[in-house]
Amino acid sequence: MEKKGRKPHVLIVPNTGQGHITPMVQFGKRLVTKGIKVTLVTSVYLSKSMHVDPESSIAIETISDGFDEIGPQKAGVDSKVYFPSFRINGSRTLAELIEKLANNGQPATAIVYDGLLSWALDVAKQYGLLKVAFFTQSCAVNSINYHVNRKLLPLPITGSHVSLPELPPLLPTETSLFLLVYGKTSPPHLQELVSNQFSNMDEADWVLFNTFYKLEEKIVDWMAKLWKVVTVGPTLPSMYLDKRIEDDKDYGIKLFKPKTSDCLNWLNDKPIGSVVYVSFGSVAKLSQEQTEELAWALKGMNCYFLWVVRDSLETKLPNKFIEETSDKGLIVSWCPQLAVLAHESIGCFVTHCGFNSVLEALSLGVPMVAMPQWIDQPTNAKFVEDVWGTGIRVLPDEKDLVERQVLQKAIKDIMEGEKGKVIKKNAMKWKELAKEAIDEGGSSDNNINEFVAALFGSS
Ligand code: UDP
């Protein structure tokens, strides 16, 4: 197959889920501005429900996860069935797609695959393409997962602390291995999925992280001894950071429709720093009891709140809560989170600490109340509080409940207290450093340019 001299063509293959698609697509947008053709490869089912910006510079192609017609949720399958199905069907259909594109005169140069879909590396290898892993979680979290994969951190964790190179000592509950419910061990198949990301990693040509160098300096340097590791984040739209890409104002591909004007009109007449923004991302589900406890915490406080309660979870709110708090609160099923975090009325962000939300808050200088739920979130929350100094963690009691007083104290400490002043100062520092990283000549910008040069060298 004659490849030399063509415009490089990158296939981006994220795991399904907003928090995986967004950063990889945003990275793709940066590549497009540097002369690369980018195609997003997603599941057939998901492609039917995605809201795509009509101006999008990224093409879309589909592969099968085995649930093309009704999707995994309606099919009632859990991750134990889903991920093996995606591996088998995805490998086959990704290979077919690579062949189709080559026959249509648009041969792929590289596969940039989500770490969780490590089978995509094997497909890329089969066709002689550049094999590029992309991680949507932090370097710290991936170091933990790597150590498990190489049996350098045996499970179950028995000691009181986990000590790994270039990471602060972590309590077992602060490692990403305690999935599903905060503080409880995950089922083996999920641990396996997370750790298997590293099984074939030694064959990757590049390992990209949606983080930035100064945020995780020591651990990035440590990982760079293992593989060709580079940081390419934060992947927020350019207009929130370096402003070099004028039409990059928003995440171009969304799985949920935000209530943009409802949120922004409501925020517009609120005083500066007076609103608590609350969101637990696209996946986490608070229990009935925790939802009620959070509701009472917000109702009992002397500040405004904007709370994202996804449609399926609204029934967990206390009876008449929306009517009774309408003078101070707005509840929406999905919001334009970047525009909300960038709004001057926001005083703090009560977050589950999904890594995208954390990066967004860091990049926009918003202090956090960190209320982690599962997967990597407890580790992220530890870093938010103890390493980056941009938030306060709220931890559950022995019944797994973060009590209303604990929540209220953390919010008050940030909005009004002396501690809040220090946290806000740190938040502004990270905001500057995030922008610097992706701006011209910054660490992430340089890394992206190096990657682009390698793509041109391979096409
Ligand atoms: N998000 C949004 N509107 C909302 C809630 C979340 O646009 O109402 C976006 C948020 O900006 C982030 C993503 O959804 O980019 C959530 O990713 P994260 O990694 O924080 O959490 P996950 O959903 O993967 O648990």
Explain this structure.
The protein is α/β, with parallel strands linked by helices and 459 residues long. The protein folds into two domains: 266 residues, Rossmann fold (3-Layer(aba) Sandwich); 178 residues, Rossmann fold, CATH 3.40.50. The chain has 17 helices and 15 strands. Strands 4-2-1-5-6-7-8 form a seven-stranded parallel β-sheet, with helices on both faces. It has a six-stranded parallel β-sheet with strand order 12-11-10-13-14-15, sandwiched between helices. Strands 3-9 form a two-stranded antiparallel ribbon. It is globular. About 1% of the residues have low confidence. The structure holds uridine-5'-diphosphate. Uridine-5'-diphosphate binds next to α1, α12 and α13.
Keywords:
single chain; 459 residues; alpha/beta; Rossmann fold; 2 domains; 7-stranded parallel beta sheet; 6-stranded parallel beta sheet; 15 strands; globular; binds uridine-5'-diphosphate; glycosyltransferase; UDP_glucos_trans; quercetin 7-O-glucosyltransferase activity; transferase
